[in-house]
UniProtKB/TrEMBL annotation:
It comes from Brotonthovivens ammoniilytica. Belongs to the aldo/keto reductase family. SUPFAM superfamilies: NAD(P)-linked oxidoreductase. It holds the Pfam family Aldo_ket_red. This is Aldo/keto reductase. Coiled coil: none annotated. Residues 16-256 form the NADP-dependent oxidoreductase domain. InterPro entries: AKR (IPR020471), Aldo/ket_reductase_CS (IPR018170), NAD(P)_OxRdtase_dom_sf (IPR036812), NADP_OxRdtase_dom (IPR023210). Keywords: NADP, Oxidoreductase. The lineage of its organism: Bacteria, Bacillati, Bacillota, Clostridia, Lachnospirales.
Amino acid sequence: MLKVKLNNGIEMPILGFGTFLTGGTDCEQSVCTAIQNGYRLIDTAEAYGNEEQVGNGIRKSGVDRKELFIVTKVNFKSYEATRETVLQSLEKLGTDYLDLVLLHWPFGNYYKAWRELEALYAERKIKAIGVSNFEPDRLIDLIHFNKVVPAVNQIETNLHCQRKTEHGWMKKYNVQHMAYAPLGQGNRNEMFSQAEVMALAEKYKKAPAQIMLRFLTQQDVVVIPKSIHEERIKENFDIFDFNLTDEELETLTAIDTNTAKIGNAEQPEMVEFAMTW
């Protein structure tokens, strides 16, 4: 498994398993299946409501905890009680430390929440801390007025929403770019039938999803595709036996629409909607 080195020296797998909108036995089994098929990074969140099921799946896998990189997030409505929330996540996941904890959105009192994460990081309950859905202005502001530079910023990133500007700012401040929804909304979206993607899939004898995931990982973007289907879980992991050429990367880069389809913290409508969660 290829890894990236975070700004505090911790190594993180470049490909992981996402668990958004999964729960119950589906969540447990898919996490177990992913780990048994080579995944070592597992991503969850307080807001997903599945940390306990993720923990059960981890235990069922039989893989040593020390081999895994577990990521969770604190929901913005819990920022006033970040320490308690992280301790609850530890209990639900059945572990005595977390590899990475993120602040889920730049809403509410995220300054207070960040400083509580800094304290937990200093106590070594968390190996790395970061943020999610932070646009460059909020990210730079957080960096300049706090002690610890976020190790990761997890934002929606895929073929149609490549986040080149955001990626550049993250590079400048040595913050690792992590992509959620790296395959967009799944097999029903138009990215899978994009002519350029299909041509490369035929050339390399790969599925369209594998082409899109390799496109991101070749640019040092961490990806966390999700699925509850064993065949697709295996398929999404099998992307490191080929490399796209520079010309092919440029071709796929040109497809970017630069539009976030799921989460954009700068849209007032998005903020209004989030407040109802």
